[in-house]
Structures are given as C-alpha cells and as structure tokens.
User: What shape does this take?
Amino acid sequence: MIQTAGIDRVVTIDLHAGQIQGFFDIPVDNLYGSIIFNDYVKAKNLKNPIIASPDIGGVARARSFAKLLGVDMVIVDKRREKANVSEVMNIIGDVAGKDVILVDDMIDTAGTIVKAAEVLKKKGATSVMACCTHAVLSGPAYERITKGELDELVVTDTIPLKETNEKIKVLSVAPVFAEVIRRVYHNESVNGLFV
Assistant: This one.
C-alpha cells in the first residue's frame, strides 16, 4: 500500500524484525536507536559501563551499541512461557561492580526489563539503566518501572508516553530523522551515521 501510494523510500527506526525490510521493493533505511542513546549514555560518565541484551534475540543490537561505546556486553538468558510473561534464567557474563545498560527495541509491559534489572543487581551490578526505542508501556508497565530495580529507563519519542515518571527520560528522534532526510535529499551516505 505504501508503494502504491507513491512512496519511493522508507526511513524507520528499530524495526522489531529486520526481515520486514525484505517486503519492500523500495529502499528501506532501518536506523538503530543506539545512535540516539549514544551521546546520552556517554554524558552519564558511568564508571564501569557494560551493555546487556535482555534476550538472545537482541544480541546483534546490543553488540552494535557495545561496539559504538567501546565496552563489553553480557546477555540475559530468559525463557518465555507465554506472551508478555517471561522468566529470567541466567546472566551470560560478569556484571559484578558494573553499570549495566540494557538495550532493547521496545518495551511493552516492562516485565522482562524489570526482572532483568532485578537479576542483574542480584548478580552484583552497581546500577541498571535501560535504553529502549519504542516505549509501548501497556498494562502494568508504569507500576513495574516505578517499583522495580531499574534505576532509569531512557526511551525515544516514537510513541508518546501516557504518563510521566521520574525514572523515565525521553529523547527525541527528530534530529536523527532530519539528518537522514537531508542526506537522502543530497544523495549522501546514510550509513555514515552509524560509523
């Protein structure tokens, strides 16, 4: 439908599954949220930062962000019994004395991210921050974030928040999209944003 309407290029951010790009016959630029979180995380001057993927599926995203920041990464290994219910099982890697930064594309009910923060702190993490592009935050999400072990949740404004929360920081995607549009218009490399 997008192509039939005359659109000849799509610019988006953190598709839940990168394979979605294959359904288009036009160029698709799938930006990484890490380019938005990068400066914010660096400005925090964390003493001992480490990136964490909240599940096996997010390892590529976490690895990309870890490389961008020049830090190591760990993986939260979890088993999901049914939709919106997860059980954190194990941490692959050492987080003792580390400032952990969980990286995800979206947070729905916040069950996984809050449980991950709890387990990471039990394993010795000094602090746990989460960076998430799409803050769906449905159902008990706000309550879980408020009461949970997560120190800070950094999200973008791709989805407007339903309520404010002192633990949630919102960053704008507008400057990144503006730069991509400028580069596309002038036939410049979009990949240069990721280097």
Observations:
- The domain at 33-190 is CATH 3.40.50.2020 (Rossmann fold).
- Residues 146 and 166 are 8 Å apart (CA to CA).
- The helical segments are 34-43, 59-69, 111-122, 141-147, 174-185.
- The two ends are 33 Å apart (CA to CA).
